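Q: Okay, next protein. This is Metallophosphoesterase from Massilia cellulosiltytica. I've checked the sequence twice, so it should be correct. Can you predict the 3D structure?
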Amino acid sequence: MRLALLTDLHANREAVEACLAHAERQHIDQYAFTGDFVGYGADPAWVVRTVMAYVARGAVAVQGNHDYAVTRPPSARMHAEAREVIAWTGGQLDAEQLAFLAALPLIQRHGHACFVHASAHAPERWEYVTGIAEAERSIRASGSRIVFSGHVHAPALYRRADDGRMGRHVPQAGEAVPLQPQHQYLVLPGAVGQPRDQNNAACYAVFDDAAREIQYFRVPYDHGVAARKVIAAGLPIVFAMRLVEGI
């Protein structure tokens, strides 16, 4: 089975369309969306509706912190600009879309795989997996051979060897990384809708369980259009600049 992994879509229609079109050419059997479908971008209704359609056809989806926030009272944990977008987003979604986001699970396990937006260790705390210690904590808590997550907005791959040693790999675009069956892995595909690794091309990954490999992709898209839509919607200009600069 070939599984397309998309995370942190962040209401960016142009990036989502580009990644889904690219994935359709990769002979994908299944899709997984690991959270943050809203926030930052100007097309939350279109993105949520698209994810809902994929879920109706059997895709996996879990809740991200922005999806959680838009269905609940404002949280002081979010910075002011993000809260402003969340408040605006709530007015863009209909009741069915809000109910869909509210009902999403924080974590799903299927076979040897675990799907979670942040860390499998206390996923409701939205911990960022930015290093070896956080990755090991998530892998151990998952009870799974492979963990697929997001939240970090940059691609990475962590390995926990059968002797307990941890390792980290920064994948390159188009690189297919072989996975050893005796090890455990944590896969961060990078963000579809708001990359933050000095590269404004959208990110996603494909896991092939038969070939035992993960392949990372960068997909250029019209980030200028997406940025102008953010500005036209009256949202904080910083989120438009991030799309252009990839930070």
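A: Here is a summary of the prediction. The longest helix spans residues 44-56. The mean pLDDT is 96.
Q: Noted. On to the next one.
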